[in-house]
Design brief:
- This protein has helices spanning 3-36, 49-80.
- Helix 1 (3-36) packs antiparallel against helix 2 (49-80).
- The protein starts with a helix and ends with a helix.
- It is rod-shaped, with a radius of gyration of 18 Å.
- It has one domain (3-80).
- It contains two helices and no strands.
- The chain has 81 residues and is mostly helical.
């Protein structure tokens, strides 16, 4: 196996690990947002909108990172075929 292919396999493994971590982060943020928006648990006036806004921004960032990493993974997989 060439050094270049080994390096690409390492980058692929790192990218797949990052995708898993980002997916877990996104799922956690979604759960937090869902609970924060549940008016059955607390009235609307008690909802912490600034916190939910921060969580939403974090979710958008994680989503954008997942989209990018997916394309990186696809590119690396094509190169390794």
């Amino acid at each position: 196996m060439s050094i270049e292919r080994a390096a690409m396999r390492g980058k692929l493994a790192e990218a797949e690990d990052m995708r898993r971590r980002l997916n877990l982060k996104g799922e956690g943020l979604i759960i937090a947002l869902r609970q924060g928006l549940n008016t059955a648990l607390q009235p609307f006036e008690d909802i912490d909108i600034p916190l939910l806004d921060e969580q939403w921004d974090s979710l958008k960032t994680a989503w954008a990172e997942v989209i990018k990493i997916r394309s990186d993974i696809a590119r690396l997989e094509r190169e390794l075929r």
